[in-house]
Design a protein that fits this description.
Length: 162
């Protein structure tokens, strides 16, 4: 009859005396990444559990592990932890990683629910509402930088040899 060993005790011993295990250093790194990734993908992991993982590992190690996850896995994790985050749908993978890390360290509050779409008032039959005088035919820029970027023209290119 085989006895089971305490895996955590063995891992702790390896971590406390790495010089005794030089041949498995790479395997330890892979196993650590796989184990933490599995914990992050657990369906019952919440923000509190993620905070415990971050507290145990430290934010730098957690950031490295999040960086090693696939973009879809990080997006799924962000969606599971913060269903109402406003940037979840259009956010970049880097933004999702930053948000998960911020949730883990407690530096970002959970997102607020998205506002419900506004109901439109019925229009009078056959008449469209007039646009304000200054805004006819163009949309307002999202911010001043976008406005400046859109109106800037590149400098003319100099031609050599002709």
């Amino acid at each position: 009859m085989a006895l089971e060993i305490d895996g955590l005790a063995v891992l702790r011993a390896i971590a406390e005396a790495p010089e005794a295990f030089p041949a498995i250093r790479g395997d330890v790194t892979k196993a650590a990444h796989a184990l933490v990734s599995k914990q992050l993908k657990a369906r019952n992991l919440g923000v509190e559990g993620l905070g415990k993982v971050a507290g145990a590992l430290g934010s730098q190690a957690l950031a490295l592990i999040l960086d090693g996850l696939k973009d879809a896995e990080v997006r799924s994790l962000a969606g599971r932890l913060d269903k109402h985050h406003p940037d979840l749908e259009q956010g970049t993978p880097a933004a999702h990683r930053r948000h998960v890390l911020a949730l883990a360290t407690g530096t970002a509050p959970a997102g607020k629910p998205k506002p419900a779409p506004k109901a439109r008032a019925p229009r009078a039959a056959g008449r469209a509402a007039p646009a304000p005088a200054g805004d006819r035919g163009r949309a307002a820029p999202a911010d001043a930088l976008a406005s400046a970027a859109m109106s800037a023209k590149p400098p003319p290119r100099k031609r050599h040899g002709t």
